[in-house]
Design brief:
By secondary structure, the chain is α/β, with parallel strands linked by helices. It has nine helices and twelve strands.
Length: 382
């Protein structure tokens, strides 16, 4: 993120905190003490967010990381509840007058704080639950035989996604007995030397026709080349603008570098996404599955021979209503979709992710491992 964008981001965060104070604290009581406490809470939360971003790429204590990162989730929930509260009080003022609002305002604000507390607790609870196994049947033209693909993405191996957590996900994935396992980016979210014990658990992944991996944007923040080498040494096929043809089952698996490679020091390097190179020498008589971390890679398509795109990145929104903001950047939020490019129809499947980013919180969404049942177009059951 450029310096200019960082300034805009933090100014927006400051203004949103001020909004939270004026809506949820200023009028809850006439007592100056309560108001000062409110100011301290809002300022403290903002400071915690700053510290979280400052320590984000370091080896931080797990409890401290949880405390600081959670301030970001609590802030987002509080802002949206404050926004709803503001609209509600404005409607009461305009519809029934200031006197009616005066009698109800304290009650409305107290209810708003109970809502914040409930939604915060719910978001922590939902994130602690074991990832769902979400199954999806996908019809693929010219597919020779049914294939079972286990997909997970956005694991974000870091302080909280530790060795134990990774081992549980590996065991859960292996238990599905898939033909192929694919990891579509943001698997590692720290320097390899810090998380190497957790990453090595990925070497236990087992699939009949191999385990495949592509970079996500977060891997670009660290020692990207080291990450690729270490995953390769674990027996995982890393695809960076490359493809492999599995003639025994009749399918191409291609993997493109993440769109983050278009910026900064990676621009014009081998880590820059290149769709032409990714598909070079792929067998056009066979179906092609493209692994791409970000769904918006489809905006670059122009009639290429791609039957199915497998993506992540969106986290399904992670904390509602961030879902709506995600859709400003990405074409779809999650699930299976068809799209047309240059009169050619392709499909894309987007996972909500097996982990989380930053705060260990999810609201109105669950972590998931996806079991994709690819079927020839002549088949109707599995």
């Amino acid at each position: 993120m450029s310096i200019g964008m960082r300034i805009v981001f933090f100014v927006a965060i400051i203004l949103m905190h001020i909004f939270i104070y004026f809506v949820l604290f200023k009028n809850i009581s006439t007592s100056p003490i309560i108001k000062h406490i409110g100011k301290c809470i809002v300022v403290a939360n903002f400071v915690c967010i700053i510290l979280f971003f400052k320590l984000y790429h370091t080896h931080t204590n797990a409890m401290l990381y949880t405390f600081l990162s959670s301030s970001l989730g609590i802030f987002w929930i509080s802002f949206n509840v404050a926004l709803i509260t503001f609209v509600l009080t404005l409607c009461i003022r305009l519809g029934f007058g200031a006197f009616s609002l005066y009698k109800l305002e304290s009650i409305i604000i107290i209810i708003a704080w109970f809502a914040i507390a409930f939604l915060t607790c719910l978001s922590f609870y939902l994130n602690t639950k074991k990832p769902n196994v979400v199954e999806e049947k996908i019809i693929i033209n010219n597919l020779k035989q049914p294939l079972q693909i286990a997909l997970f993405t956005d694991m974000h191996i870091d302080v909280l996604m530790n060795q134990k957590q990774v081992a549980q996900i590996v065991d859960q994935t292996n238990a599905l007995n898939p033909d192929i396992i694919v990891m579509v980016g943001d698997i590692i979210d720290n320097y390899y030397s810090i998380v190497q014990d957790s990453v090595r658990e990925l070497g236990r992944l087992k699939a009949k026709y191999g385990v495949y991996y592509v970079l996500g944007n977060h891997e670009y923040y660290y020692d990207t080349y080291t990450i690729l080498k270490e995953l390769h040494d674990l027996g995982i096929t890393t695809l960076v603008n490359q493809n492999v043809t599995l003639y025994n089952i009749g399918i191409n698996i291609a993997g493109i570098a993440d769109l983050a490679g278009q910026m900064g020091s990676f621009k014009d390097s081998i880590l820059t996404p290149n769709l032409v190179a990714t598909l070079t020498n792929a067998n056009n008589k066979l179906p092609t599955i493209l692994l791409s971390h970000q769904p918006k890679i489809i905006n670059y398509f122009n009639g290429e021979h791609i039957d199915l795109v497998l993506s992540g990145h969106t986290h399904g929104g992670q904390i509602f209503p961030f879902h709506l903001l995600v859709l400003f950047d990405q074409p779809f939020l999650y699930g299976l979709h068809s799209f047309i490019h240059n009169n050619k129809t392709s499909q894309i499947f987007i996972s909500q992710g097996v982990g989380w980013w930053g705060m260990p919180m999810r609201l109105f969404g669950r972590r998931e491992i996806n079991m994709l049942h690819l079927m020839p177009n002549s088949e109707h059951t599995f």
